[in-house]
Amino acid sequence: MQKKVPGFSLIETALVLVIIGLLISGILKGRDILETAKINATALQIQHLRLNLQTFRESQHQWPGHQAHLGDSPFAELNALGLCDSPLPPETKIGGKLTLQEDPDHTLWIVLSNGERAGILTPQQAQSLKTKLGEDVVFSGAGCLQGQSLDFKTKKPVCLVHVKV
To answer: At a CB cut-off of 8 Å and minimum separation 6, what does 88 contact?
Structure first.
């Protein structure tokens, strides 16, 4: 007669491994869903700011940031006209802030950065944002681009995003 050794059966062990696998896959999928939601919220925020900047330009015949009595803060000017919630650059759900940059040819760009002009998105996140915003998006940042294309081998947040208004 064989002695029964205490322990788990093969079926019980397999069941536990299946449950652990399902939990891990659920957690990973949940992270993807959260990241997608943050990118979508940031895209909507940029589109809303772009529309408000165009509204400002149509009514004032210039981009914001040229009124000395408001300290030359473009967001203070937008806020004074009720076109944004705060006189400060808005923070985004994905991280970083939206700032404005005007070129010498008077082209205005919305810039998504960490406030110090450093990258905030991975190349994969940057591509997702560009898909939602359209063609008027360019990227910069050390390690973000390889030639003219995004460097998808880079997994760190190195991309600055510039959106033409």
So the answer is: 75
Cβ atoms within 10 Å, residue 156: 12
Which of 3-12, 45-54, 80-89, 143-152 has the largest mean confidence?
45-54
Q: pTM higher than 0.85 for the full model?
A: no
| Structural contact between residues 161 and 106, judged by C-beta atoms closer than 8 angstroms | no
Quick one: pLDDT at residue 13? 86
93, 46 contact by CB (below 8 A): no
Considering only CA atoms, which of 111, 62, 105, 64 is closest in space to residue 84? 64
Residue 162, token pair as written in the block: 């510039």
**How far apart are alpha carbons 125 and 6 in whole angstroms?**
51
Distances from the Cα of 108 to the Cα of 17, 19, 147, angstroms: 55, 52, 25
Residue pLDDT, tens place only, 43-67: 999 999 999 999 999 998 888 887 6
**Cα–Cα separations (whole angstroms), residue 28 to 25, 36, 53, 89, 110:** 5, 13, 38, 32, 32
How far is it, in rounded angstroms, from Cα 19 to Cα 76? 53
From the number of C-beta atoms within 10 Å of its C-beta (0-12, 13-18, 19+), residue 12 rates as exposed
> Tokens at residue 17, please?
């491994």
